[in-house]
């Protein structure tokens, strides 16, 4: 019971970070479900997709009212990510894709997201009086006809979403800015809608493959939604850039914890690599 209370409190913290930072917090759903709520990893990934999708949809609402959602780009990019997410979820059902592999891949993606957030927080670009400071941290769009690259990256991001349950916002926003040529505010709002698309497709790929705790999933989503509403309100009074770097280091610590929890896997794989050599030596000694 105590662990459940802690888990629901952390769920509200996920929403709070999403409201304050505009992204990133959803990656905490999987480790909380696995290590606090004691949900098996594959089921936790499927449940994370529902939680991330629902919270992202709630986050879309204020962006939609402000006109910061580009529906055509969301449909173009989202259609590719949905294909990838469904395929990634089906890949997760293969015997070769173990729960350990998924957790390690998730930890690596957390490290990548954290490094990206730290680099973005450290950049201090020279701005003109009319330039968006967030947009200035990215280079200019890199190609004239980018729709093909947009679809390709969308499929890749979708596959990762299906495999490990991450929304992929840290990769979707730059893609929409560089390839979709959207202003930063539109890219953030549009990315939330795309993440919701991803989550639906990924969950459909998992549906029927794993057993789900629907009560936990709904209640976890509820507390995360309360958190994002509070975070959205507090964002008017708090400078998110001052929090971003600290949150990134927190993500790195969580990723290190996950890798530490999987340390026995690395040891066993190292031992197994020596088994063929040891077996051959034993056979040679018997033959002599």
UniProtKB/TrEMBL annotation:
Source organism, top-level taxon: Bacteria
Localization: Cell membrane; Membrane
Entry GO terms, CC: plasma membrane
Membrane topology classification: Multi-pass membrane protein
InterPro entries reported for this sequence: TM_pro_TauE-like, TSUP/Inactive_protease-like
Keywords associated with the record: Cell membrane, Membrane, Transmembrane, Transmembrane helix
Keyword Membrane carried by entry: yes
Coiled-coil regions, chain positions: none
Family: Belongs to the 4-toluene sulfonate uptake permease (TSUP) (TC 2.A.102) family.
The protein, known as: Probable membrane transporter protein
Species for this entry: Synechocystis sp. (strain ATCC 27184 / PCC 6803 / Kazusa)
Lineage of the species this protein comes from: Bacteria, Bacillati, Cyanobacteriota, Cyanophyceae, Synechococcales
